[in-house]
Amino acid sequence: MDVKRDILWRVYLSYILMVLVCLLILGKAFYIQQVQGKYWRSLSDSLHQKIVDIPADRGTIYSEDGQMLSTNIPQFDISIDFRVTPLHEKSGLLFRSNIDSLSICLANLFRDQSADKYKNDLTRAYEVSEGNYELRKKISYRQYLALAKFPLFKLGRYKSGLIAEEHNIRLNPYENIAYRTIGLARDENKVGLEKSYDTVLNGRNGRQLVRAIAGGVTVPVEEGLFEIAPETGKDIVSTLDVFIQEVTENALKKMMIGNDAKSGVAMVMEVKTGKIKAIANLGKIGDGLYTEDLNYATRVTEPGSTFKLVTLLSALEDGKVTLDSKLDLEGGSWNYAGRTVKDAEAHGKHEATVLEAFEESSNVGMAKLALGSFNDHPANYFKYLAKLRLDSISGIDLMGEGAPIIHRPESRMWSNTSLPWMAFGYGIAIAPIQTLTFYNSIANNGVMMRPYLVNTIKEEGRVLKTISPKAYPWTVCSPNTIKSLHIALEGVCTNGTAKKLFANSLYKVAGKTGTALVADGARGYADGIFQSSFVGYFPAENPQYTIAVIIINHPHAANHFGASVAGPVFKEISDRLYSTYIQNKIGVTPNFSIKDSQLFNYSLSKISLQTISKNLSIAFQDSSGARNEFVQLKGKGKTMNAANDIISDSTMPNISGMKLQDALWICEKKGLMVKFVGKGKVIKQSIAQGEYIAKGQQIQIELN
Fold this sequence. Notes:
Low-confidence stretches: 592-599
Number of domains: 3
Mean pLDDT: 84
Number of helices: 20
């Protein structure tokens, strides 16, 4: 009995202990759930939920004419979670019934592989229940919309496993057009307007609570629930004009390719406002390949002869000389303080006026002009540099503009030759944008405008801020000096170094050529690298645009003068702007002051000739015969004669100068098959005038 009692006591004790342990566990569970439940639930949620940033859309950069220059576009990375339950229900019926049609749709959309290949890849990933199968990266929004309607995918992410991660990329729709000016929007390498207006364009990121699900993908805890909503960046409207920018870049690139130049910049500024209408920066990256690699407009360089205008202004304003004052040009070579000043070309001239020395871009003349005016008080010369703001940056709204390098009399770099060499643009360095701004002030009758690139800041189409033109509160010189500078700059284009360039121009140009030997890094001047420049404005009597062209040529380039390298770029730009924006709009009288002594020979309809003759009151002699529809207009100067039936049976007529419509009519009437390139009027024909032709023969014509 004692043994039995002892066993029962132990059983009861064990039972009681078990009951106590169970009660303790239940009590602890109750305590955790009811008392500490909130704490543990929040801790559990924190392991699966988090707050993430929602990137804000960056604002768009527009041109002044409303074209998008830089904007955000969405891209999508597409993956599939093959572990979702609906894909495996009923032995995978949903997947297997859609895989064939889905594969065909994918092959047709992306065109990178066959439908069978897509089917095999997708089936293999499905069979191993791959959780994050990468289907395609960086697809466009249009492709994503099409994808979302495909078989299986149209059922949504929770049935098909389709996962689309959206992210924005920055796109320049015009690619390289003004690329360095508009800039890049990469976090580590912003430049241009993208950098200068980064805080405006960037917006403010939002915040959102998300929960992790299968495959490492996160979803909002509640759709549309934000801690902070993202704030889209503001838009900016620039001063750039797409047409002017294209004209400027094409003209610059054509010359640089033809002359195998190293780098170049061309800029167009609106005279009255200071708006920058175009900046083209091109650097050589390979054989005949050029791209916008650096912003040469804001990089300092020796200006060369375009700086002579500063010297002329300073001397005239100081009252020491006039345009008629005499200078000895020393035949083009002059020894001073142990160094030799040389003109670009040996001319043998001695006595010349200040105007003639400037028109011919004489280094000797400008050096003597500076010494005669400022040698005793060089500080007076720098007083004018400060007034012209050439000792400080231009203030354009682009970050990274280089500060001018100018050695002053108190500097240890100053010597007896510093002033005369500075007079013709050596021994100093300024950015092309500063040269453009200075010349624009002369075009604007002494009023200097701050160059700028942004007109307005907008938010959802509503103007938040308008940036107005800013004129500095002083004139750069007196009205008499301005008048003399206008005469001098026009003289360069009619009598001086740019005489040939603008000999037959329909409008007057005022400008200055520049040819400077520039240093090539540590090699100094040994490589014989010349910088060709032309800076000026037009039409001279009512200036609308100021243009600066600066090109760095390859070593020992045979063609390196400003008038023959930079000048033609200026003229091509100005011709296009004159015909597009200026002619017939501001009442500029065509430049007929220069007598045209060249022969001309054009073909046109007799009706057109009669209309022209009547409207311009220019008489012509008609010996073509009453029945001729088209005539050849020949002459010299104001002598014009309409003669010859150009529609002969067997020879090719001259169609130069004709509109495309007239040229086609004539060529097709003669049975020719026409191929043409360009727009405008005919400038070239593959079959020369007078050659025998046959029906069905092909002719190629080029329009201007």
